# Entry
Amino acid sequence: MTIHFKPTEHANAPIVALHSSASNSGQWSQLEADLEGRFDVYAFDLPGYGHAPLDGDRSQTGAAISASAVISEIEKLGTAVHLVGHSNGGGIAIKIALMRPDLVKSLTVYEPAAFHFLQNGTNKGKRLFQQIRLLSGLVTAAAAEGNAAAGMQHFLDFWNSDGFWQNLPSQAQEKFAGQISSVMTDFANGLAETWQLKDLAAVEIPALIMTGLESPDIAQHVSVAIAKALPNARIALLPELGHMAPVFQPEWINARIFEHVASVERPAATFSWPKLQAA
# Structure
């Protein structure tokens, strides 16, 4: 499914928003409400999610499988876009920026799920990479044993907090358990990526990278590393927010998305201020 929120007439470039794993395009409905009258927001169901997911390009590998599908949709818009992504959607957004920087006017990501480069980094990076590979293995092993609920419990408790799964209504647990296959695919595609931090030096797009200070260490570490590697990026370290803040505390995230895309559309350098004369 593609959700298209079209506000009143304006000249701003549209926003394309990509959701996290185990979510769907509806994740961005509050963003549409917050930006009504300012920006068109296009939110796509990524491969494996929602009622009418995009078809992944199986001729590609890694995150390009999903990124290519999104690129096709952006091309249909006929203009460069402000690209927004959360978690897995953030990793895909970075891949799009690497593949087709001409289609991306600005980049805003919250804790992008891009972990592959950690295995070639510092000792801490390697330790964190083993942590995420273990999580992927736990999800896969549970699915193989026919216990999707246990796999998704590992997944959701890791990104939220211990006990998160147990506090979900049974209907929500069922829904998440039904998404385990797509989550496994997201892990596989993400871990199959090959770009390295040095490759981001070529991405000169204005970027905002956000991370919550209550998020898992790996999410914060990756966000900071990517922000440092992008030549035209800012980092926002947000206290009291966790990995799912774009879903559970959108008021804190959407305001920053708006500030970033608006600053790209109307840079402060282009404003003229009235000349004041002292009395």
User: Anything to note?
Assistant: The mean pLDDT is 94.
